[in-house]
Input
Amino acid sequence: MASEQRATELVLRRPDDWHLHLRDGRMLERVLPATARQFARAIVMPNLRPPITTVEAAIAYRERIKSALPAEMNFTPLMTAYLTDSISPHELEHGYQEGVFTAAKLYPANATTNSAAGVSDLSQITAVLERMQAIDMPLLIHGEVTDSDVDVFDREAVFIERHLIPLRRRFPELRVVLEHITTSEAVEYVGDAADPRLAATITPHHLHINRNAMFIGGLRSDFYCLPVVKREQHRQALRKAATSGMSCFFLGTDSAPHPRSGKETSCGCAGIYNAPVALESYATVFEQEGALEKFEAFASLNGPRFYGLAVNSEVITLERRIQQVPRQLGGNNVDPSDELVPFHAGEELGWALKTED
Ligand code: NCD
Ligand code: ZN
Output
C-alpha cells in the first residue's frame, strides 16, 4: 500500500518473544543481548542438558539468565517446565503458583534437540494434564509425531490428527499453544477453533523460506530446523495467518543457536539462530504482505493476552534503513568452529531497530 511504503518509522509497543532458546553458560552470554535489546520478555525453553524439570532448577536457570544480562538492559525471562513421563503434578503446580513456571513444554520424546527425556506417550501424563487444566497452566506443544513410518514433512499434520485433536477433546479447558507451526493444517486447526484457549506461535524463518532453501546450491545446514520448513503453499498459509491480525497467532522466534561445529557436521543439529534480526525479519514479511498495521498485534498484543499478562508499556521504533546482516557472528576470542551463522546471513534487510542515544 502506497502510504505504508512511505512510512519511515514503525513505532510499536515493545514486543515479547513467546518461544526462545537461550541455552546456558558461555552461549547464553553470547546470545542473550540480541534478544534483550528487542524483547521485554521471553518464554524460555527448558531443553537444556539436563532439562529443567524442577522448580529449583528453573529458579537457578532464571538467576543465570539474569546474571548474564548486561546491566543496562531490561528483560524478564519467563520460565517453563520440561515435561517427562515422571514429572509430578505437584511440582508443576508448586512452580506455577510460585510464579516460577509460566507454562510447561511438551516434547514428544526424541522429536527434536535435547528431547530424549520428553514424553514417550501422552497416556503417561494424564494426571499432569488434569492438574494443568485445573490450575489453568498453559501447555506448550512441540507438535510432531516421531513414528519412523511417518514422513518427516508430515509429522506436524499427523500430530494434530492423532494427538492434538483427541487431547483437546479430553481437556477442553486446557490452554494450549501449538509452537512454531509450519503447515496449512496447523493454521486451519488453530484458526478455525476460534477458542481463546488455543493459540500458535510462528517463527520468522517459516515465514521467509520454504523447504527448497535447504538445498539451493548444496546442503544448507543454516536453514535446517524442526519442525522442518515445508512446501511453499504452507509458507503462504503461515504468512496469511501471521498478518491476519487474528489474536490466536503470535510471535515466537524459536531462535535456537548452535555453533557452526554443531551445524556443519555429518549429523547436524536442528535450529536456526534468528535472534539478532528477529523483529526486522518479521517486519519485512508484514510489509511485503501490506499488513504493517497488523504487526503490533502479532508482536506485542496477542501473546500477553493469551498468557493473561499486561502488555508492555514502553515502545520501540523500527526505522527504514538498510541493514547488512553479518555472514557469521564470532569475535576475537571465538574459534571459527564456535561461530554462529545468523538467519539472513549476508543479506540486506530494509528495517533496523532504532537504539536509544
Ligand atoms: C530447537 C533447539 O535447537 O533447541 N531446534 C529447532 O530446530 N527448533 C528445538 C526445537 O524447538 O525444536
Ligand atoms: Zn524451539
